[in-house]
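Give me the fold.
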Amino acid sequence: MHLLFGIILGLAVLVFLVVIHELGHAIAARRNGVVVEEFGIGFPPRAWGKKLKNGVLFSLNWLPLGGFVKLQGEHDSARKKGDYGAATFWQKTRILLAGVLVNWVAAAVLFTILAWTGLPKLLANQVTVPSDTKTIRSTVQVVNVVDDYPAAEAGFKSGDKILRFAGEEVPTTSSLIDIANQHKGDTVDVIYSRDNVEASKTVHLKENNNGNGIFGAGLGQQERIKATWSAPIVGVATTAQFTWETLAQLGILVKNVAVGLVMQLSPNEATRASASAGLAQAGSSVAGPIGILGVIFPAVEQQGITQIIMLAAIISLTLAVMNVLPIPALDGGRWFTMAVFRLLRKPLTKEREERIQATGFMLLMGLVVIVTVSDVGKLF
């Protein structure tokens, strides 16, 4: 039941974020004199449709993977009244980038909500207003245990929350490490919570630290930032920070892939092996829809609504950033193509535009297939 609920909620989050993106395009198109022929939730085949009073066909479709908006005369060369192609350059710019703006604003709103309720601290320099910020720390938690070390021998598992260690409170991970170091070689009592049930274990600590500590467990603790009047400031600033971080990580990814591909051409076998390892590492850092859902499902079951809102904000922001990039078949790619032909003073014919966008779409789908295969591999 939990898994089914996670799947439904995960799909709902993805579909909602894509639908509001397309809704941004539709609203901008109508405001700039372009006729919106259809607004669909999901992808065809069509399950149900109804003509609205404003003339737009609203449809529900069988493939629940997002949504779409169909404009009259979508090609840049279309010239009839109400055609997208007949709009001015700046009107087309507003239409193409409206979806990006909606996703960016949605992320800012979600981060603002989290700033009121407790925004997880994920960046070392995450923006706060010190005079209006309260830091909340979760209970210290076992992330993993090392085989043949005291934590594993005592039966601790990932997810166990450490309440008291050797009779002392453990407000932070560093305090637990300090207490453990004070009791090297001793046998201590550890009070912990597992599945909200409190229990106790006796642990004989190691006398020497051989790289894995004397307790032998990886520890984790989440910090949350809580604000009141400054929440909107924190929400917008956090969105800007994550936008920059996303662009920076994309830059690193592209650089690593480019360097890896060049190294693959090297006659040196060791260099080619290093390139293959680098490309594999780059691929492992990318996630597609299955990978995203693979993160959302456990979050629904284990982390609660805060983590779901956080993931929705990050996914919305990622949609905004990806769609602004000059990749054919995406919003940024369509704008870039239109701008280049405008600068070159060459006509962007229907056939030429279709070839460019189709090529970009094929490359994009190829990337989706590669990433999806990678996602499936990670899940299993």
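The first helix runs from residue 2 to 31.
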